[in-house]
Each structure stands twice: as structure tokens, then as C-alpha cells.
Write a structure and sequence with these properties.
2 copies of one chain form a homodimer.
Chain A (H helix, E strand, L loop, with lengths): L4 E3 L4 H4 L5 E6 L4 E6 L2 E5 L4 E7 L5 H7 L1 E6 L5 H9 L8 H4 L4 E2 L8 E2 L4 E12 L3 E14 L3 E2 L2 E2 L7 E6 L2 E8 L4
Antiparallel strand pairs in A: 1-10, 2-3, 2-6, 4-5, 5-10, 6-9, 7-8, 9-10, 11-12, 13-14
Chain lengths: ~180, ~180
């Protein structure tokens, strides 16, 4: 029943197309998950990424104390869960993974759990924080990355099996990418 | 023949879905245009964005001397031009706009030209630079933004007229977003 994942040696490729992401944090006893539309790859090797996070987020303290976060790439089947994770705070929901219908998957290196239902995972360690006022830009090293074997082939997302990635338009709306330009 | 643009008061919405972007630089006498797959919105109000740029780029000196750059959002019809702008340096191409088949459109506030054929424009002033080694993360204020009226309505990209945004997968491949989740 569980999908098969393979390690990815070009983690930037997982987020370069700009899909919305689920960010997970945890220290082994407490955890949380939230969604971000604002993220980017920063370096291929050694791989680095950045996300923006509000300092008032329930997850902030866990990110600060662990220095880590996980990124999970949802496909279109998780759109409702992504909206739930963006709408409700872990402060008000005791078990946000379960409340959002998401399953914790253990990470290889970081303490935070990942989202099992996602099609890609990146394990990240924060190495630089850019103060943006209410929020901070978290620059992080990717210490491990993997993707579902049926969705990511030859270093690139593979839409031939029906993969649909979602891109945040605003509010509760996403655009969907499901094909490659120049191919059917 | 020329498309009609309207000012946008939520510039972050133009790039939140993660499309590939064309970056233009210029000081009124010299100019250049290149493509970036790595960018993100950073703040809604006042609007801020970030892009990654290599320090060895031909455009680097113009960005440094002017402190400005333009962002143009291409649709799928510009995919070849985007690839051209990513493949060739302005160092080797005297007039990269023309060579890529792109038309300069005057910006409202910055000196750099914008790409007329694009569906959205953001005029940016660099306010913070994060050193990343070979490259730098350029954090910038958006001083003006506009989008084509038939492609961006009620503060969001509007795919009902056939708009297709392109997202970089790697190499010369893009995924295409052309619809909204939950709508046809």
C-alpha cells in the first residue's frame, strides 16, 4: 500500500517548479505541520533552499529549538489538507497531522516527521535567518531528499503517470501543473 | 495589437504560483535580460520579492550600479525565449532582447526595460543582498506591478481565457499550469 521512495541527488529539482509545500517541524515529542506558498531553491550543490515563516507561527519555537524542518511536496490529492494546514494553527489543533488527514513518516536525518502521502520529501537544517519583520526568511541546507519513484524519474518530475502538482494562486485556489511543455 | 495592462496592488500574487521569470536590467543606455527559475515572494505589503542571481552574470554589474531589476512573467508562448535567455549570455549577444525575439517595454519607475510580450511586470529595487558564494540572493521592494487585464482578474491569475504559465522542471523542460483546482 505504501509508495516507494528513492533518494534524490538534485533536491532543487523537487521545488524549482514552485509547488506549494507542507513544512513539518518536531523534536520527537511535539510536532506540527503548516503550508507555505513562498519558497525557493538557492543552490544545487551543496543543496540549499529557503522558505518564509511567520515568527508568530506555532511552529516557530520548534524550528528555533531544533534548527530543522521538513518539506513535503503535496500533489493535487492533498489540496484540501494543504488548505487545512494553512488555515488552522497548531496552537488550536492538538494533532494537526491527524486533523488534516496526514500521516507522519519518519525522516532519515532530522527529528521532524514528514508527510507520508506527499510525492517528495526534503530534510532541512537552518543555516541562516534573514529578518523580515513579522516573518523570517529561513535559509537551509538540504541534508536528505527523496521522491516517489513513480513521480520523479531521471532527475525531474515525471507527469506521465498522472502526477499533478499544485501552485498557490491565493486564498483557497491553486493552479495545477500536469504536463510538460512540448510533450503530451 | 498591444495588450492592455492594469496596475496590480497585490504583486506577490503574480509570482506566488512559482512561474519561471524573465529578469531585465538596464541603465538607459545598456540593458540585458535573463531567465530565473528561482524566485519567491517575501512580503505582501509593502511588497517584496527575492531572486537568485549569479555574480558572474553579465547583468550583475548593471544590477549593482542601478540597484534595480524588472521581472516579467512569461506565458507558454514565450518558452523558447525563456530558454534562449537562460542559455546565452548578454556578454556574447549584443542585443539579447531582439535575439530572443522580445520587445522592450518602458517601465513606469525603474530604468530597466520590461518584456512587452509577458503577461505581468514587476519593477523592483534591491534592498538587501544575501551572499551565497557564486551567487547572491537579491531581496527587493516592488515599486510598481501590472498584469495583462485578460490574464489577471480580482487579484489572481485567470486561466479562463487560455492563460498557460510555465514552471521550470530542469534543463529545457517546463511544466504548464493552465487551470484552477476545483474548476474547469
Amino acid at each position: 500500500m505504501s509508495a516507494s521512495f528513492a533518494a534524490v541527488d538534485s533536491p532543487h529539482r523537487l521545488i524549482t517548479p514552485g509547488p506549494v509545500l507542507l513544512v513539518s517541524v518536531g523534536d520527537g515529542s511535539d510536532d506540527n505541520v503548516f503550508s507555505v506558498a513562498w519558497s525557493m531553491a538557492l543552490r544545487k550543490a551543496p543543496p540549499m533552499v529557503a522558505i518564509l515563516s511567520g515568527k508568530g507561527h506555532y511552529s516557530w519555537d520548534l524550528m528555533e529549538s531544533t534548527g530543522e524542518f521538513g518539506l513535503s511536496v503535496p500533489d493535487a490529492s492533498l489540496a484540501e489538507a494543504v488548505l487545512y494546514c494553512g488555515r488552522y494553527s497548531g496552537r488550536d489543533v492538538p494533532d494537526k497531522f491527524s486533523a488534516a488527514g496526514l500521516t507522519r513518516a519518519p525522516a532519515r536525518i532530522i527529528a521532524a516527521p514528514l508527510v507520508q502521502e506527499a510525492v517528495g520529501h526534503l530534510e532541512c537544517r537552518i543555516c541562516h535567518v534573514v529578518d523580515m519583520g513579522y516573518s523570517s526568511l529561513l535559509v537551509a541546507s538540504v541534508v536528505f531528499a527523496e521522491a516517489r519513484e513513480d513521480c520523479f524519474t531521471e532527475g525531474s518530475w515525471d507527469f506521465s503517470g498522472g502526477l499533478r502538482l499544485i501552485h498557490h494562486l491565493g486564498g483557497d485556489r491553486f493552479s495545477v501543473s500536469s504536463g510538460v511543455l512540448g510533450a503530451d
